[in-house]
Structure formats: structure tokens, C-alpha cells
Specification:
CATH class of the largest domain: Mainly Beta
Radius of gyration: 20 Å
Strand content: 35-45%
Low-confidence stretches: 1-26, 236-240
Strand order of the largest sheet: 3-2-5-6
CATH superfamily of the largest domain: Carboxypeptidase-like, regulatory domain
Order of helices and strands: EEEEEHEEEEEEEEEE
CATH topology of the largest domain: Immunoglobulin-like
Structural class: mainly beta
Number of strands: 15
Mean pLDDT: 85
Shape: elongated
Length: 240
């Protein structure tokens, strides 16, 4: 859930991944390749590296590749995609978020430029910092039925830097938040009162959550029904 502008959620078309090569000709298009490591410099196998186009929407899945057992990756790009890219990595199974997303990185990502004169760039990408983890369940406060609501995160010090959408794909959730950062957290669904952290339906009483790298917090959320509530998150995604 991210674009160069944090309020946007873009969907990009999948690109084929090619074997690691050192150069790319103008006819072949462009190439971003290199290595990815952990914060301590150790090789990071099976991390996902993204080359997120900046300043333009290409109507496709963000170009990406996974690192191999020797930490190498290669992302091949068509010439029509030349320009600036935010290049960063994630490894969600180890709680490293996608740092090409403004919400997680606060813009502190590696920018790589491909052009006809320089179609190949070699980079070293580092994972981290590790995110904080929110996990738990979301249910109807009266019936205990599982719900699939939408989520909104905002950096408390930068309200315009946010991430939102139908991020709770299942009623049992796991969400990554920027570590050592005050984050406002809300859950919403049509037909229910919006829930705010720590546990209130009154927006003025919400508080930020702040987690250390790798810290986990379990929150079981119970949404109060309200037939008149229209949050913009259709109740059709309700799993009842």
C-alpha cells in the first residue's frame, strides 16, 4: 500500500525476472542489480527488492525481485520505464517492512536513475530498520463474528504521511508499523463505529502507538455496530 505520494495505493503489472547480469544494452532496456544485506551486513536471502517508479504512474505491479542464496538480485526494466526509482527491500516474515513506501521510510530510500546513457545501475541495499508488529483479531462486539475491516495508519507528527486501505485481509491480522515512531491507528468498516487505538470510538481520545524494532503488541479489536456509520470501507468485505 504505497506510492511516491503516501495517500495513493497503486497496482503495477508483473515484470519477468532475468538472471543476474552486469550490463544491459539500450535495446534490452534497463537493469537494476546488486546485493541486499541485513543491518549487520550479513547476506539477506529471499528478501524482496522493489524498484518503485517515482513521479509517474505506470499502471502495473511495482517491478521487484527476490534475492538468491548469495544475496544477489536483478530487476530488468523496459526502456519506456526509464527515470527515477525508489529502490528498497522488505522481508515481512522477519518483520522488515517495504522501505520503498514513504510511510515506513519517511522518504529515506535509495534513489536510482536509469536513462538511455546509463541503463544499468548496481546497488547495495540494506534491510531495516525492523518494524514494530501489531497483531490480533477483529470481531463484532455483540455477535463475535469475525470481520474484515479497513485500516488507517498515520504518523502522528506528519498526518499527511499515512497508509490506509483494506489491509486486514483476514479477521486475524498482523500489521507492521514504523518502529520508534508515534503512529495513530484506526480500524473502520461500514455499519460499525470507527475504532481508535488504544480502545475508543471517540476520535479526540485516540492515542499513538509506539513500538520498538521487533516489539509485538497483541490487540483484539471489537467493533461496535452502528447501522448509520458510513466509513468508506464497504461492509461487503465483512466475512460473516
Amino acid at each position: 500500500m504505497r506510492s511516491p505520494h503516501p495517500a495513493c495505493l497503486l497496482i503495477f503489472q508483473f515484470l519477468c525476472l532475468f538472471p543476474l547480469v552486469a550490463t544491459a544494452t539500450k535495446d534490452e532496456g534497463g537493469l537494476i542489480n546488486g546485493t541486499v544485506t541485513y543491518e549487520d551486513g550479513k547476506p539477506a536471502e529471499d528478501a524482496t527488492i522493489y524498484a518503485d517508479p517515482l513521479g509517474r504512474s505506470l499502471g502495473a505491479i511495482i517491478p521487484h525481485a527476490n534475492s538468491d542464496e548469495s544475496e544477489h538480485f536483478s530487476i530488468h526494466l523496459a526502456r519506456s520505464w526509464f527515470g527515477d526509482f525508489a529502490v528498497a527491500a522488505e522481508k515481512q516474515d522477519e518483520d522488515y517492512p517495504n522501505m520503498s513506501q514513504q510511510f515506513y521510510s519517511d522518504g529515506k530510500f535509495r534513489i536510482v536513475t536509469l536513462s538511455a546513457n546509463q541503463p544499468t545501475q548496481a546497488v547495495v541495499i540494506q534491510l531495516g530498520p525492523k518494524a514494530g508488529v501489531l497483531q490480533g483479531t477483529v470481531t463484532d462486539a455483540f455477535t463475535n463474528a469475525p470481520l474484515n475491516p479497513c485500516v488507517e495508519f498515520r504518523r502522528a507528527s506528519e498526518p499527511n504521511n499515512f497508509l490506509s486501505g483494506s489491509g486486514l485481509v483476514k479477521p486475524r491480522y498482523k500489521l507492521l508499523v514504523p518502529s520508534d515512531t508515534d503512529v495513530l491507528f484506526a480500524i473502520y468498516l461500514d455499519g460499525y463505529k470507527t475504532w481508535y487505538f488504544p480502545n475508543t470510538v471517540v476520535r479526540t481520545k485516540r492515542e499513538p502507538v509506539r513500538l520498538k524494532p521487533g516489539e509485538k503488541k497483541i490487540i483484539d479489536i471489537r467493533l461496535e455496530p452502528d447501522a448509520s456509520a458510513k466509513s468508506g470501507c464497504p461492509s461487503a468485505i465483512n466475512s460473516r
